[in-house]
Write a structure and sequence with these properties.
The complex is a heterodimer. Chain A has three helices and seven strands, in the order ββαββαβββα. Chain A is an alpha+beta fold. In chain A, strands 1, 2, 3, 4, 5, 6 and 7 form a seven-stranded antiparallel β-sheet that branches. The model of chain A has no long low-confidence stretch (mean pLDDT 88). By secondary structure, chain B is an all-alpha fold. In chain B, 68% of the residues lie in helices and 0% in strands. The relative contact order of chain B is 0.16. Chain B is built from eleven helices and no strands. Classes of the chains: A alpha+beta, B mainly alpha. At the A-B interface, strand 2, helix 2, strand 7 and helix 3 of A face helix 1, helix 8 and helix 10 of B.
């Protein structure tokens, strides 16, 4: 599956996250790539949002159903747990599929919640 | 919080019609897992009510969000018009909701309240739209004002969780409004009606939240504030998704 590297925005991968402490996502997780393909040309890392099977009830966590994610259960994209990973086979181990297009605006809004006030342009308006 | 599951084979992707109100059965199942309220699950019925009043709902209304009466700079005559309609909405749509004894009853009353709201709300938007169009910066100022309201001490009486959901709903609604202002052809004609309906539903729930903030003496059912905040968020984010999915789609999907 490494043929699909580097990961692209809206890809879902099974990945190895960074070590962490209690409260931080770590070890092996499905992740959603959120950084833009353009920035990846100049950056040595890819921004990902971990996906978990444990639901949290907050506007910065996006529930995704199996038909939209390719995962086999209802899952949650945690936009408040972003990590920067090198786009290497050690980190990005198995490509799953692309996130369904109609879920992407919901992730964008969740990210906007996380970065409240830090986004200069309205999403989808240009 | 490690997820020790090994990689699983990717199932064949299922064709999806998109996140729209016609897929509410799926959404209801998902929401039930999140233990949301009966009002939330009944969103389809709200939308159905709106459909019968489509002639009163206009695409231009997507550009307008509620500023609240405290928004500075509104001319006196406009303030009076908006204040009058707000009072009508409060008395006929929102106060009856306060009489609900439980969430089941609140769900029933809220649908009647929504009917009243759909009849009255276009009057507010119709009054505000020309004034907003005179000076586009007013829209951004109103959006900022409305969003920051959810961080105020008055709002925090409702609880941090309620304010968080209302603020996120307000942000989603304002994001869509801004996007439509910047790109008037953003929304596809086939999606327009559903987008408008969800925006009106979001406005209804958001204005109910504003009503709670500005009436410190009233005591709604404890679950009602949170249910309305989540309803506002669900409707506003769904409207945004319906309006912009084509902009987030892969190029090959658009070509296909």
């Amino acid at each position: 599956m490494s043929a699909r590297l580097p990961p692209k925005q809206w890809d879902i991968w099974f990945a190895s996250l960074r070590p962490g402490i209690r409260g931080e996502q770590m070890l092996d997780h499905n992740v959603l790539v959120v950084s833009s393909t353009l920035i990846q040309r100049a950056s040595s890392v890819v921004m990902v949002a971990p996906i978990t099977s444990t639901g949290r009830d907050a506007p910065w966590v996006v529930p995704i159903e199996p038909q939209d994610s390719g995962l086999d259960m209802l899952s949650w994209i945690e936009c408040d747990q972003l990590q920067a990973l090198a786009p290497t086979p050690e980190r990005f181990r198995t490509f799953r599929r692309r996130l369904a297009a109609h879920q992407r605006p919901l992730v964008a809004l969740a990210l906007q919640n996380v970065f409240d006030g830090a986004l200069a342009l309205p999403l989808g308006g240009s | 919080m490690p997820d020790t599951a090994r990689p699983r084979p990717t199932p064949t992707p299922t064709p999806s019609a998109g996140r729209s109100w016609v897929r509410l059965d799926d959404r209801a199942r998902c929401r039930a897992m999140l233990a949301l309220s009966k009002i939330m699950v009944a969103a389809q019925e709200f939308v159905d009510h709106t459909r019968s009043r489509s002639e009163r709902l206009r695409r231009a209304q997507l550009r307008v969000i509620s500023p609240g009466l405290e928004f500075a700079g509104m001319p006196e005559h406009l303030h009076k018009v908006v204040e009058g309609v707000f009072k009508e909405i409060e008395d006929r749509a929102f106060r009856p909701l306060l009489a609900a004894q439980d969430m089941g009853q609140a769900g029933l009353i809220s649908q009647q309240s929504f009917d009243v709201f759909v009849d009255l709300w276009p009057a507010v938007l119709g009054a505000l739209t020309p004034w907003l169009q005179e000076q586009p910066d007013r829209m951004n100022a109103m959006a900022t004002f409305a969003r920051e309201g959810w961080s105020s001490d008055d709002a925090r009486r409702l609880g941090d969780q309620v304010c968080t959901w209302f603020a996120a709903a307000q942000a989603a609604r304002a994001t869509l409004a801004n996007a439509v202002v910047l790109n008037p052809s953003l929304i596809r004609a086939t999606d327009e009606q559903a987008v408008v309906h969800h925006c009106v539903l979001a406005d209804f729930a958001l204005l109910f939240g504003t009503f709670l903030v500005h009436e410190p003496g009233i005591k709604p059912l404890p679950e009602l504030s949170l249910a309305m905040a989540k309803l506002a968020h669900d409707a506003a984010t769904r409207a945004y998704s319906l309006a912009t999915t084509h902009r987030f789609a892969d190029q090959e999907q658009l070509v296909g």
